[in-house]
Amino acid sequence: MITTREQERKARQDKRFVSKQTQTSAKYLRRIAELSGAPDGMEPFYRALLRIYVDMQGVNVPQGVKTIGTYCVMAPQELIYAAGAMPVKLCSGNYTAFFVGDDIAPRDACPLVKAVAGFKHTELMPVYDDCSMMIVPVTCDCKKKIAGMLEGKCDVMTMHIPATRGDDEIDSFVSQLYELAARLEDVTGNRITYDSLANAFSMVGHAQYELSEFVRLKKQHPYLIRGTHAMTMMNAAAYMSAPAWANAMHRVNVSLRRRASSGQTVTGKKLPRILLTGSPIVFPNMKIPLLIEEMGGIVAGDETCMGERGMYDPPVITDNSFDGMMRALANRSLRPCPCPTFADNSQRLFRLKQLIRDNQIQGVIYLVLRGCLVYDFEYKRIEEELGRLGIPVIRLESDYNEEDVEQLRIRIEAFIELIKLRQAPEKKPTIRRDFNEQVLHRA
Ligand code: SF4
Ligand code: SF4
Fold first, then answer.
1. Domain segments of the chain as ranges
2. From start to end of 205-306, where are the E strands?
3. If you average pLDDT over residues 72-76, what whole number do you get?
4. pTM for the whole thing?
5. Does the 282-309+340-440 domain belong in CATH 3.40.50.2300?
6. How far is ligand 2, taken at its centre, from the CA of residue 236, in Å?
7. 2 CA to middle of ligand 2, Å?
8. For the chain, what is the mean pLDDT?
9. Rg of the chain's alpha carbons, rounded to an integer?
10. What is the rounded CA–CA span in Å between residue 290 and residue 363?
11. 11: how many CB neighbours lie within 10 A of its CB?
12. Is the pLDDT assigned to residue 384 strictly greater than 70?
């Protein structure tokens, strides 16, 4: 039996959690909004993040529509929409929840998992607590443990993600999608029909079209938008319905087209163009893109799951039947995915090179969340490949707190300086350059 004293202690802890959580999220939203050059039309994205993290409300869904949480982009949102529900991405970047989870999860677990554990423990975040079902694709050991931890909270479906993606693996993933469809029908009480699935494809397809327009504009007009703002829009997609996100994105694209035709850029100068890749960057953990842009670089591209990658690849339907659509979802989830969870990940290298070429990238920052082995494993290979292309790359390891901000700032500043020096080859190497290289090669 819980005593009054324990209840009071819990109430005090909850109050502290809410206050710290909302303050941190509001601070990051403010820093993003204060960064110069935000395009017109950002308000719906800010509002979506404000609603979830500062007002601490659930997602905006019509009465009676259930929300289904997902923990990886490999869980197809089309199936969730087809069941009349709304998908929300629950991978977390929350520092306050991380501190709570730090006492629950093992020391070497990644911060993303610790933050999820923190939210589960506090039961104070409606976006988590409102979910009628959670889908956890098991991509790494940490995700496996998330699935186990969430059991008992609501209906949880784990999805097996194969290490390779041949035809047999795709067949088996299609079977899992049929099982997922049946579970979604049970939870929502709605049948997934040919028409509802086709409608869901076109609904999500509209959002993907707007994203492709955005990517095209960015590619054709360097310095049209800051990456921090772009990543904020992508992060907000986790809590907005696909049509709401597509409409908001359409308005941003209109304003960017206007910018492009008048030759307007976010900065008068040619800032070093950085590609951000590695472990997911989930709001409010936006310290890395913010530091890059506050220190005089520009995030000209991102290859992260809460960024453009999350929606980049549309499913391709080659057979117009229901089964053909399920197969298209399975193919899209596995085949083009550059997640390091797959044994052979040459696709990621291909995608990185494509992004470097398309966005005229001059340097790559590779984020490894502490404990995220799958991303850390791939760093060496990527560093070697990019080295052959003459593209400088640094690995930044970080956690969900602000203790490492100064160290990150020094390394990012040095990296940006290095790119600037490379931009001006006529300048003789200086002491500064030696210093930069020393800093950059520190573990
Ligand atoms: S990084 Fe991999 S496991 Fe994480 S959301 Fe992306 S695809 Fe899924
Ligand atoms: S892929 Fe990395 S960041 Fe994501 S859950 Fe696994 S260990 Fe954590």
1. 282-309+340-440
2. 273-278, 298-303
3. 93
4. 0.92
5. no
6. 20
7. 36
8. 92
9. 22
10. 16
11. 10
12. yes
